[in-house]
Give the backbone structure.
Amino acid sequence: MKRRLTSLFVAALPLGLVIVGACGDSADTLTLEEYFERLDAVLEASNGEAETLNAQFVETSDAAQTDEESQDAFRNFFAGTEEIFQQVISGLESIEPPSTVKEAHDEYVAIEVEALDFFSANIEPAEGTSSLLAIMEELQGPAADEIIARKVEGCLALQAIADDSGIAIDLECIK
């Protein structure tokens, strides 16, 4: 029995080495073009999820018959938005950028983390208020505008690197 397990391990070892070799150390093998393809895939996926979430929110909030149902629609929307932020950050952190884009990439990740922190801190009603309107006002206020502007700037910095490198990709920084 022990010999059979050893044989299976030895037989599987080359396959494991091929898989590890294919994954490799992405810092050594990821080209700038591959980096931007992966970055674009992360951003495209989040945009698609955000569109779906928004459509679901509109549908459920329009169908709401009571204040409680409206609040549930908002809470579900907020939870979904928070999850999308987390997925974007996770996706960005999973990319090991080439050295030519590392600083801009790291700055963009930091901005996304800051945006998530801001959003998470402001989706609960303030002490003494139960108003979703107060939440929406904060999420649409000057602090949110500043974070959005920084996200656009970070995205445009990445887009400029792609453009300067002759990589034909549109990160859709401004919508």
